Amino acid sequence: MKSNQQSKPLTQRTLFVMKRDRLESRINMYFQHTRDVASVIEYLIVVMLRDALSCSDFSFLCRDLVRDLFLNAEPSDLLRKYCAYFKDYFAAGSEWNQVKARLFSSQQEYDRFSKEACFYKNILNTPATRENANPDLNLRFVSVFKDAAGKKHTLTIQNANERRSGIEAIRMLKVLTTLSIFKTASGVKRFAEFVKLNRPGVKETLEEEEMYDELREESVQASAAEETEVKTVEIIVPQDFDVTSLNEAEVLTLVRVGHPEVTSLENLQVLFVAEEPEESAEIQEPVLDPLLEAPSPQLEPNDYSLVKDSSAIAVANPPEADSQKTKKPKLLTPKAAYVQSLIANRQTNTKKSSNKKNKKTGNNKKKKR
Questions:
Q1: What angle do CA 308, 310, 311 make, to 5 degrees?
Q2: Which pLDDT tens digit goes with each residue over 115-151?
Q3: Which of 191, 267, 318, 354 is the residue whose CA sits 20 to 30 A from 88?
């Protein structure tokens, strides 16, 4: 009866809960009764994971058995696949080279077989102290995996090392997805895919959001940008002025008269307001900069490329005139007068361009005759 118990495969609970001395004895006894090299090697990798995530010391478990297997057991692909995990069990130099020479025909073959094992060994060897910052807390790692059929299973590791970050713990736990010893009742792989991790205690000690944000290989960062406030600028124009003939540069020039800080029409709504009809208006003659008096680039009368379809520029109808009240002449401010001058220059240049075009067309007709 006792012999049957010793030859029974070790369970998940045994490997993650049993204390060091008893666990080491169980693994040794299991091998003596079964000679199951494959299972023993995977059991010891699980123990390495437990050693890395808990505050208890499980380092170099079953050292003599491991050394005997890699130095004397029949070479196999399983020993080749996992030998890198146990490099520290052997003296550096000649002893480790002896193990490699028994299992591999070349360094290239060793690299090919050991690539995955070397990757996870480096993760499991990430240094960390076993002293917790909160010794009064009963901490544990609670992880969730999916089996090969998609069903979820929970794995709990007691006496969790608080010094391990969530990212480190997740990377270490993924070593279970490379092992085959844990099966469900239906015979499918129990730890096929990692799902999530927590470290509950009296208080949660993992920063869950930061942990998963950093681990996402293809991060989808969809942070909503704050809406930019749209500023409205009013410009008074003559009644008969066609604002749709202005191009973007000309609109920006008019805006900058009253708002010199503006450098772009982006996030700006320009509202053109037709001036009210008046009996007279006194316009102050501004002192124009010669550069600003230069005519703007000439446009064809039907060129509405910018403003006509732009939602950023609107035209406001003038308020209805009150026939009962007599309107007094209104003095224009220097800035308003400057705008009026720019618009007047624009209209003059447009008319000249149109006249030249008409004259040229007439001359062409005469020549044809």
A1: 130
A2: 999 999 999 999 888 877 777 778 899 999 999 999 9
A3: 191
